[in-house]
Known about the structure:
Elements: H1 3-20, E1 30-37, E2 42-51, E3 54-66, E4 69-75, H2 81-87, E5 95-97, H3 101-104
Parallel strand pairs: 4-5
Antiparallel strand pairs: 1-2, 2-3, 3-4
Amino acid sequence: MDQPIAAYENAILAFLNDYAKIKPSEWTQVQNQVIVDRENGHYQLVRVGWHNGQHIHYAVFHFDLIGDKVYIQENRTDLPIVDELVELGITREDILLAFQEELIA
């Protein structure tokens, strides 16, 4: 893995591990899990468990490293995560919002 991509991976993991510490206080049966597939460049924060008799399972964040770019596949929050990733050292031009078709077409 070349230098910028390794730095981007470290930034993504720092971001995900930081946010994995946060969950709604009433969700005592729900875990936050950081899922990492380094070989294929996939990184996620997933919530899984039970709350009020319902099974919870969804990706809060999903990032992919494709080439030398960071693709934000999922952001189920209202957080300005592009700004946070830039603060962690990822170049703004290397961040793409994959869920906005016009930006990746």
